[in-house]
Design a protein that fits this description.
- It is a single chain.
- Helices cover 27% and strands 25% of the residues.
- The strands form three sheets. Strands 7-6-5-8 form a four-stranded mixed beta sheet.
- β3 and β4 form a beta hairpin.
- α1 packs across α2.
- It starts with 16 loop residues before the first strand and ends in a 6-residue tail after the last strand.
């Protein structure tokens, strides 16, 4: 089975128990990932082998891991996918490209890796952002 980049907690049944192999198959991940999760806090039902995991505990663990991995952007920051963290754009310069009447995309350059960063914002957020960054508005593209 092909492995997935991220485990989907909704694939795990809450009222079922899983062995490491069953859990890996259910989530489409490698069994070593389950073992690594045990090392960082996933609790089996007991210490006997084969290890058994309660579905609701696994779901809570995966959701907690996802919540801890989130990196919300502060005002004036855009998320750089290459660096995997929010950053202020180089020189404080961004372009606003309207997509609809009420929202659009901010485009900026990452100061570290020179990649293009994007962030979706509303017109209301744009007014507040004008005080923090130097915003240039592009004309709206025709669809």
């Amino acid at each position: 089975m092909a492995t997935r980049r991220k485990a989907n907690p909704r694939l795990v049944k809450s009222y079922r128990t899983y062995t490491s192999d069953e859990l890996a198959d259910c989530l489409g991940i490698h069994v070593n990932t389950v073992r690594n999760w045990m090392a960082v806090g996933l609790e089996p039902i007991d210490d006997q082998r084969p290890y058994l995991f309660r579905g609701d505990v696994v779901r809570a663990f995966i959701e907690r891991q996802r919540a801890n991995a989130k990196r919300p952007c502060a005002p004036g920051e855009l998320f750089c996918l290459r660096c995997r963290e929010p950053k202020r754009p180089a020189g404080g310069l961004v372009d606003y490209e309207p997509m609809t009447e009420t929202s659009g995309d901010l485009l900026g350059i990452c100061p570290d890796c020179d990649a293009v960063m994007h962030r979706r914002i509303t017109r209301h957020q744009l007014e507040a952002l004008n005080r923090i960054l130097d915003v240039t508005t592009r004309p709206r593209r025709c669809a």
